[in-house]
Amino acid sequence: MKNPLHYIQEYPHRTKQILGITNGQFQDLLNIAEKHHHRLQAEIEHNKVRVNQKGGGRKPKLEISEEVCLCLFYLRQMPTFEILGLHFGISKTEANDTFHYWLEIFRKNLPASLLEQVETNDGDYALALELLKEFQLIVDSMEQPHCRPSSNQEQQEYFSGKKKQHTFKNQFITLPY
């Protein structure tokens, strides 16, 4: 399979279809994420007690740009980590670890949605809902398969009668372009 980042580099006009953002936005996000990554790695290195010499150990299989692309590709397409690993030439465990690492960096550097920002304060939450009533919103939902939980209560919570399996229920609300 072709790595999505290589495809984007070959056809930059298709970046929005694959990652959900334009190529320019991807490059800006990549620059911000790289700076934060290097700062985070320097902090980890400063606090580390070394036994082995610096530079030892297994080298990463993916470049930073590929790791950022992996995270955005997952958020846009929602494949399983097995498929995500196949696309990027890594294991499903490494794909999972990479996704969660970069997701934390994105959460720290990107603004939260309006509802996430105001959900702690009831007055602001009501005001935000009132503001959103003036707009037309697009609402969509999906179910993503989830391994069967061990407790009965969790099984009832995650079971989907429609899909006949245990799933995560996701709902997306967005403003039209």
Low-confidence stretches: none
Strand order of the largest sheet: 1-3-2
Strand fraction equals 5-15%
Helix content: 55-70%
Describe the main β-sheet briefly: 3 strands, antiparallel
Give a brief description.
The protein is mainly alpha-helical and 177 residues long. Helix content is 56%, strand content 11%.
Structure, explained:
The chain has 177 residues and is mainly alpha-helical. It has helices at residues 4-10, 15-19, 23-47, 64-77, 81-88, 92-109, 114-118, 122-132, 152-158, and strands spanning 138-145, 159-160, 165-174. The protein has a 3-stranded antiparallel beta sheet with strand order 1-3-2. A hairpin with a 4-residue loop joins β2 and β3 (165-174). α3 (23-47) packs across α4 (64-77) and α5 crosses α6. It is globular and about 55 Å long.
Keywords:
single chain, 11% strand, three-stranded antiparallel β-sheet, globular, 177 residues, 2 domains, mainly alpha, 56% helix, 9 helices
Layout of helices and strands, plus pairs?
Blueprint: H1 4-10, H2 15-19, H3 23-47, H4 64-77, H5 81-88, H6 92-109, H7 114-118, H8 122-132, E1 138-145, H9 152-158, E2 159-160, E3 165-174
Helix pairs in contact: 3-4, 3-6, 4-6, 5-6
